[in-house]
Amino acid sequence: MIKERVSSPCEIRQGTSPVILGFPHTGTKVPAEIADRLNDNGRMLADTDWHIHELYDGLLDNVTTVRATFHRYVIDANRDPAGVSLYPGQNTTGLVPETDFDGKAIWKDGQGPDETDIVMRLRDFHAPYHAALAAEIERVRAIHGIAIIYDCHSIRSHIPFLFEGKLPDFNIGTDMGKTCDSAIEQATLTVVEATEGYDSVLNGRFKGGWTTRHYGRPDTGVHAIQMELAQSTHLETEAPPFAYDAAKADRLRVHLKNILVRIEQIAPGLKR
């Protein structure tokens, strides 16, 4: 039985599956006092993981979900709270982004976040989201002896500021195999490599964000894997209004469901 509750700044659906879906980047809520400081470019909220919670909805019975309702421009729930870069030496965005994924400013001149803003946003948004996620991990691990976090993401397929060329459709991240049992990684890879009309990569440009790297500790019974989808797989266009393409999405959902079901099926064999 699924239990739902909304505890701003996140939405939680409690299920009994060993799998937990994380959605750190689908939220679009920006408090008025923060929105007033965004410039016209920032107010587009272009770097949202558009419709990802809708894409995964109903794919796995009794799955737990934890979804941030705030936008990543408020604070990025998938970044190290200490501000350490996930990809040293590469272009990326930080804990509280100063630019969008194209390297363009998102704040009005002189109104970008300062250290006080960051401390407050860590307290009011980032910490509550991760407290909720950590609580669900412990609850699920108490039921099954393990918990598997599948962190759900999407991004435009062409972003020269972040990567060259076209991003593959399926981007699996396990921090080079550190964050989950190899059986989880292999099950996911087997599904995506068998799909027709899609391409994929394991630990390419995206190796897993802070959520995956922080919680993924297989020796403790907590496994984590990130899936970054190219938005061309489920949007009409990768530009405003970033509309959901039901036909594309329905085709993609078949494969996503297959991944989640396989992960759930192998979970009992992963007990410590």
UniProtKB/TrEMBL annotation:
Record's keyword terms, sorted: Hydrolase
Top-rank EC class of the record's enzyme: hydrolase
Claim: Oxidoreductase is one of the keywords in the record: no
E.C. number(s) listed in UniProt: 3.5.3.8
Gene Ontology molecular function: formimidoylglutamase activity
Xref: InterPro entries: HutG_amidohyd, N-FG_amidohydro
Matching SUPFAM superfamilies: Zn-dependent exopeptidases (SSF53187)
NCBIfam families: hutG_amidohyd
Protein name: Formiminoglutamase
Organism: Rhizobium laguerreae
